[in-house]
Design brief:
Elements: H1 2-10, H2 12-37, E1 42-44, E2 51-61, E3 64-69, E4 74-78, H3 91-94, E5 100-103, E6 109-114, E7 117-122
Length: 132
């Protein structure tokens, strides 16, 4: 028994650091999971839904952009999209917090309003305006 105690004392800081790292990693994972699916959040299908509001949070997850509008509990999944008329072509890089968005129900057109301008993305289309 004394042999194990000597080994533990020798590597005490290593085990302490490993424990702290593990606790922090698990905590971050739980927070991300709670943001995406936890609590009373409801994930809504985007195509059938009409979206209108201001982006209050966004997370990229599994190749899609998950957004929350107006501090609601609902989370909407926006398919990966691109618009080649813009400098930031991909939706995940272009969309910013506090942008206003509108998407009619049963449509793949997403209108983004920022500083008096309107930008169009076609959800699920990575080649929109590519031929220009």
């Amino acid at each position: 028994m004394n042999k194990y105690l000597i080994l533990f004392n020798r590597y005490r800081s290593y085990y302490r650091n490993l424990l702290v790292f593990s606790i922090i990693s698990v905590s971050i994972g739980v927070l991300i999971l709670l943001f995406i699916t936890g609590g009373k959040n409801k994930i809504k299908e985007t195509y059938e839904s009409e979206l209108a509001g201001r982006i209050t949070s966004k997370v990229e997850y599994k190749g899609a952009l998950w957004v929350r509008l107006n501090q609601e509990r609902h989370i909407y999944v926006l398919d990966n999209s691109a618009n080649y008329d813009l400098k930031e072509r991909k939706l995940k890089y272009f969309l910013e917090l506090e942008d206003s968005i509108y998407k009619p129900a049963n449509s793949d057109s997403l209108y983004i309003y920022r500083k008096g301008k309107c930008y169009l993305f076609m959800l699920g289309n990575l080649t929109f305006n590519r031929d220009h």
